[in-house]
Amino acid sequence: MNKNSIRNLRPADALNLAFLFFLTLITAVFYRRVANPILLIMLYSGLLFFQALLIKIRNQNRLVNLTHDLLFPTACIILVFDSLERIVHYINPGDIDPLLIRLDYLLFGGHPTVMLEGVMTPLLTDILQTAYSSYYFLPITLGIVLKAKGNDKAFDRSLFLIMLCFYLSYLGYMLMPALGPRFTMDHLQSRALEGLFMAAPLQEFLNRLEGVKRDAFPSGHTAVTLTVVYLAWRFEKKLFAVFLPVALALIVSTVYCRYHYVVDVIAGIALALFTIGAGEKYYGYRIKNTDY
After folding, report:
1. Phi-psi category of residue 92: left, alpha or beta, with phi > 0 → left and psi -120 to 50 → alpha
2. Helix boundaries (H) for 30-151
3. Which of 128, 89, 112 is nearest to 260 (CA)?
4. What is the pLDDT of residue 61?
5. Lowest mean pLDDT segment, chosen from 43-52, 100-109, 127-136, 225-234
């Protein structure tokens, strides 16, 4: 892949290649500290190879295009997120939870997750836990709708901004690791989060999927969801009308369900604004100045 071909890559592809290379470099630099560095290097190298292969053979058939546009980016985001469990705490063991707890207390005069016990009901817990879990489907739904309508320009822009938001949140976890209140504040909670029938299986599924990661600050759920809502508002107004109430419930759920401090949510809002502002500007520049 020569210099000109790299410059003319789809922005989302260039971003993915750059972030995978960055993770490979981080793993090499902290080789003696990260957990299972050989596995990590194999994972990132494999993803880099597969991304390069998809770029080379794209537009050959529908299956290749589907993999290039939807399946691989989704798998890449999930696999990279999962790999952070072997990196974050090992390269930066200083969790910032005590600082986040103090900031929340200064803002509210108490601990928000504890204060919310006053409005907690099984039905509300089911609703908000379901809303929290919808985070994994909102970006995919937007992508499928844009692709189904043949709006490739909107799809490519959306894919870039969503991936940028994900990867910036991952950088945040590395720089400012935090476990979140479900671990650090559990001893202060007087009531367990109990739903009617949805909350418990969803909690168990997410615990298995996400494991124990330092992924509280900033709130990626907030940042990515707001970015997706913005893109739906820009390109799919009907979908925006469906997404908006779900997104609002999801943001409330991040604190109610004890995954995040309120300051995480504030940081997530700031990250979404930065992603949209800087990402849109950069994307416009790339489109204007390349052959892609």
Report:
1. beta
2. 37-57, 62-66, 72-83, 88-91, 97-108, 112-115, 122-133, 138-148
3. 112
4. 86
5. 127-136
